[in-house]
Amino acid sequence: MILKGTNLKLSFGGLVAVNNVSFEIEEKTIFGIIGPNGAGKTTLFNIISGVYKPQEGKLFFKDKDITNFPTYKRARLGIARTHQIVKPLSELTVIENVMVGACFGKKNYNLKQAQKVALDVINFVGLSTKMFTQAGQLNVAFKKRLELARALANEPEILLLDEVLAGLNPKEVDSMLNVILKIKQNGITIIMIEHLMHAIMKASDYIMVLDSGEKIAQGSPQEISNNQRVIEAYLGDPKLAMQLVGAK
Ligand SMILES: Nc1ncnc2c1ncn2[C@@H]1O[C@H](COP(=O)(O)OP(=O)(O)OP(=O)(O)O)[C@@H](O)[C@H]1O
């Protein structure tokens, strides 16, 4: 077990965004998180990465209680994330952006070491042709790869991917999925939030389903796509419900 949450709870005023959520994530697996809009997925990511402190519950990284650790300490432990809205440093080139990631990661790299890590990661995610392009000039698909590269440059043990497939065309989705599976093969544990049902079903070893802040199911992709409660949760969004049933 690399990450464990117990009875996590976080409210915004009267709204309980994450309610009594517990989970255990095994090392070197892909753990998918799905749920309708507003289910609490991003809030849970923010609790895991340390942006928010839960009002109740605890978070453990390899049995170490990290509930009160600030974000930078979690990054040093090896927890890195991408953001739903990609935020590159637009004026800087791709390689400079990734070097920033390397400098703030697990190890205290100097510039030369950071450059080496950045080059490796840029090759790995397929961004080498864009290395000297200003980040602000990239299209969405390349910006998503850059976001992934910046997180990988932290040399994480756990990588949190927040909708890295959103806005990509089917070919780009396939290509990004291949990168994600390669990251897993390299021994990194991945926790991913995704609305694209067939993609998360294909990639994940286990899936946790949230609805209105609560965990309503957890299981293999096949178990989840057969789960009556999950299908009902998605009925407010018939298109997603059909994808879920079709994703069996
Ligand atoms: N900073 C905040 N202040 C107040 N309410 C918030 C805040 N962040 C999230 N919420 C609310 O908490 C609930 C859960 O939001 P969250 O973004 O975690 O859901 P989500 O499952 O990630 O949704 P989506 O799939 O639409 O991204 C929503 O009702 C949202 O409006």
Global morphology: globular
CA gyration radius, whole angstroms = 18 Å
* Top-tier CATH class of the domain at 1-78 and 160-169 and 196-248: Alpha Beta
Provide the structure class.
alpha/beta
Strands across the major sheet, in which order? Answer: 6-7-8-3-9-10
User: Which topology of the domain at 1-78 and 160-169 and 196-248 does CATH recognise?
Assistant: Rossmann fold
Let me know the CATH homologous superfamily of the domain at 1-78 and 160-169 and 196-248.
P-loop containing nucleotide triphosphate hydrolases
- The CATH architecture of the domain at 1-78 and 160-169 and 196-248 is 3-Layer(aba) Sandwich
Bound molecules: adenosine-5'-triphosphate
Tally the helices: what do you get?
10
Give the ordered list of helices and strands.
EEEHEEHEHHHEHEHEEHHH
User: Residue ranges: pLDDT <50 for 5 or more in a row?
Assistant: none
Task: Report the average pLDDT across residues.
Answer: 93
Helix content: 25-40%
The assembly state of the depicted protein chains is single chain
Distance between the amino and carboxyl termini? 27 Å
The fraction of residues assigned to DSSP E strands is: 15-25%
DSSP, total strands: 10
| Major beta-sheet overview | 6 strands, mixed
